[in-house]
Amino acid sequence: MKEVTIYKNKKVLVLGLALSGVNAAKLLHSLGALVTVNDYKSFEENPEAQELLEDGIRVVTGGHPVELLDEDFEFVVKNPGIMYHNPIVVKAIEKKIPVITEVQLAYEVAESPIIGITGTNGKTTTTTMITELLNTDRRSGKAYAAGNIGTPASLVASQASSNDDIVMELSSFQLMGTTSFRPHIAVITNIFSAHLDYHGTREEYVAAKMRITENQTEEDYLIVNWDLPELREWSKKSKATIIPFSRKQKIEDGAYVKDGDIYFAETRIMNRQDILVPGDHNLENALAAICVAKLYGKTSSAIQKTFTGFAGVKHRTQYVRSYRERKFYNDSKATNTLATINALKGFDAPVILLAGGLDRGNDFDDLVPYMKYVKALIVFGETAAKVADAGRKADVKSIVTVQNVEAAVPVSYELSEKGDIILLSPACASWDQYRSFEVRGDAFIGAIEKTIQKLEEED
């Protein structure tokens, strides 16, 4: 960790806890700051605040009192989820107090090179791909995934050495609170409309994403999805060296697909079929990751080796296993129809789709045009009848209603043949039957193993 003195004996307010706030508070405390933590939850229901108090850090809980800012704080470190129209944030900005997020702190203390990944979709998968690529055949140090992926960036940055790399997933919320943040390599996977309740307009949302390259110089790299004209235009504002990727056209100095093979510049890397995670969106994620790997000097064989063993991020069109020439995929993270559409678009083989869950009042007609390969539909949960109705509109020949995911798996196998895909992609949240989409996905994986074990015993 770098020696940082700008916070020593300075009053700093950490606004909002969760993992990032806790680690920001601890890091600032270790840097000699006079830290006050403010969190909305009451002290009695706030184990994080209790822990920080035991560490000698002042805590104020049960709300966000604006009067706190009368105490002459010199910095505010804001939880990314707290909106900028929150009264205490508004007052801090009016008082010209710098309002930053935890990733800015991480950048200030990091000895390791930082690779930053942002975009509307694909951040987590791309971050994971890059981390695995950089760790393949690595001789010293380690690449660490951090940031929005779940591990606080400030925690990793305070522990990683100059021999390591930090692969940092970055949301627009986090990037809004950066000032000098400068990744050596920045990746923008794509840009679509999202989080307009937070940013107000699409232009503000895109501008927040583009802060990832704001402080880059010609010594740095910006990896951009060249299939999106908007990103091509926005990238002109960057001083970084642009490395494009495209699945639609040949790129002279980046990654692209040609005749079913993946290339970087003029070098063939591998066949696109070597990427186990299905879908054009995952192909784009892989192209972005390959650009990073090539900037790090990774060989084509090392890249191919990584991808042939990469089953995907858990619960995101995750390849689980094959059995008797059937392939099982866990896409429990698909909690809306758009996510399930993306999953279905990734397969050109017969699919047995497992779907259903929490009823939020919507129908599932959006799925109908994308169910041409669905040979059987197994539905469950509160939305079972609605999903089944979409299946009938799509002319799915076999539709079965079961109680839950565990019951769906053996039925899916009974309906399957060699070459089929068995896909859990619910198009619904899980909360009618499962605590989270992770629990639902784990139930699916467990049911696969149980079903296979029973089949083996019967042979």
UniProtKB/TrEMBL annotation:
This is UDP-N-acetylmuramoylalanine--D-glutamate ligase. Pfam families: Mur_ligase_C, Mur_ligase_M, MurD-like_N. The keyword Nucleotide-binding applies. It comes from the Bacteria. It catalyses: UDP-N-acetyl-alpha-D-muramoyl-L-alanine + D-glutamate + ATP = UDP-N-acetyl-alpha-D-muramoyl-L-alanyl-D-glutamate + ADP + phosphate + H(+). GO terms for biological process: cell division; cell wall organization; peptidoglycan biosynthetic process; regulation of cell shape. The keyword ATP-binding applies. ATP binds at G119, T120, N121, G122, K123, T124, T125. SUPFAM superfamilies: MurCD N-terminal domain, MurD-like peptide ligases, catalytic domain, MurD-like peptide ligases, peptide-binding domain.
